[in-house]
Design a protein that fits this description.
This protein has 334 residues and is mostly beta strands. The chain has 4 helices and 21 strands. The longest helix is centred in the C-terminal third of the chain and has 18 residues. The protein starts with 19 loop residues before the first strand and ends in a 6-residue tail after the last strand. The relative contact order is 0.19. The N terminus is likely disordered.
């Protein structure tokens, strides 16, 4: 697969053999609602290592049971987290981490190869509440819907006669932002990634995040079994996921904003409270990529994005809204 930016992925010096680690969400392994450069890591790995994350959906056991989930279907780990974790906020996401990657330094890039993602449980939920979602004034109340998942057929049984193909991905993947950000709310995505809610980041894709702190301090969560672009009511098919991710520290790659690639497309992203500004950022990021990596003139790069790129709304509900540009790799013949 043609890599974004460079085929040479530089492993951290001294890595003798890549290892696989497991990080299950639990009271001692989660960051509840924040990314923070001051937070102590819960796992330390080397560049080239792989981590199998088992994450938890973000909802309370009581809320799930009230919505119709049988008590024995509520994960014990979720009960433990709700009962024992008191250090919370300012956001609401239950995130595994942070993970410290040896050799990662400010100015590096963390390459995250998403090897596998699968649902951990046989249900998801979707919900809305007043004060969130794009049509909040049209729906001035709260509702939650439990959606059964057929993990064998990989479909969600949304309603009689309505099946949705599952495309699991993590809504939130990020590194700690600059220390000056302090304890950063897990809700709005930013320069370090976080709650990007980009449904393209499924198994087989690669995410690139700029490193702002020693060890990068990666966190992950907000599992989605599927989502539409926009995530308009403020939630997707929210569920618990098991994800297998490989981490590589890139000393040869300098970026200042999250980027990604699929087997078929390059992806540039932009986040801002103003959707128009987010669109400007996403297009500018793609133009910058084409100019620096594909060695195009900025004029040609801008024109190429207009004639061959797709500008889509990632999400419109996380305060910092998201836009992304998808540019097909097939247009490049060399």
């Amino acid at each position: 697969m043609l890599r974004w930016l460079c085929l040479a992925a530089v492993l951290a010096s001294g890595t003798a053999r890549a290892e696989t680690h497991t990080l299950n969400a639990g009271p001692g392994t989660v960051a509840w609602g924040n990314y923070d450069a001051a937070r102590a890591p819960v796992l330390r790995i080397k560049s080239g290592d792989t981590v199998v994350f088992r994450t938890l959906l973000t909802n309370s056991p009581a809320g799930l049971e009230k919505a119709g989930v049988a008590p024995d279907k509520v994960e014990q780990a979720l009960r433990d987290v709700f009962a024992q974790v008191t250090d919370k906020g300012p956001g609401g996401h239950i995130l595994n981490g942070p993970v410290f990657i040896d050799g990662a330094e400010p100015g590096d890039t963390l390459e995250i190869r998403i090897r596998k993602i699968e649902p951990a449980i046989d249900y998801a939920y979707n919900g809305f509440r007043y004060g969130a979602g794009i049509l909040t004034d049209d729906f001035p109340y709260a509702r939650i819907k439990i959606v059964p998942l057929d993990r064998k057929r990989m479909v969600a049984n949304f309603a009689p006669g309505i099946e949705i193909a599952l495309h699991p991905f993590f809504g939130s993947m990020g590194v700690a932002p600059p220390a000056d950000f302090g304890r950063y709310d897990s809700t709005p995505p930013t320069i370090s990634g976080g709650n990007m809610d980009n449904k393209e980041l499924v198994a087989g894709t690669t995410l690139y995040l700029p490193v702002y702190n020693k060890g990068a301090l990666f966190e992950i969560g907000d599992g989605h079994a599927g989502q539409g672009n926009g995530e308009v009511d403020v939630t997707a098919l929210e569920t618990s996921l098991i994800g297998t991710l490989e981490f590589v520290v890139r000393k040869d790659l300098k970026i200042t904003y999250p980027r990604a690639e699929t087997p078929t497309h390059y992806i540039a992203m932009g986040f801002d409270d103003d959707l128009s500004i987010a669109a400007h950022k996403a297009v500018r990021e793609m133009v910058d990529f084409l100019a620096t990596v594909k060695h195009m003139s900025r004029d040609d790069a801008y024109m190429l994005v207009s004639v061959a790129g797709d500008l889509d709304a990632t999400e419109v509900v996380d305060r910092n809204k998201g836009m992304h540009v998808m540019l097909p790799k097939a247009i490049f013949k060399r």
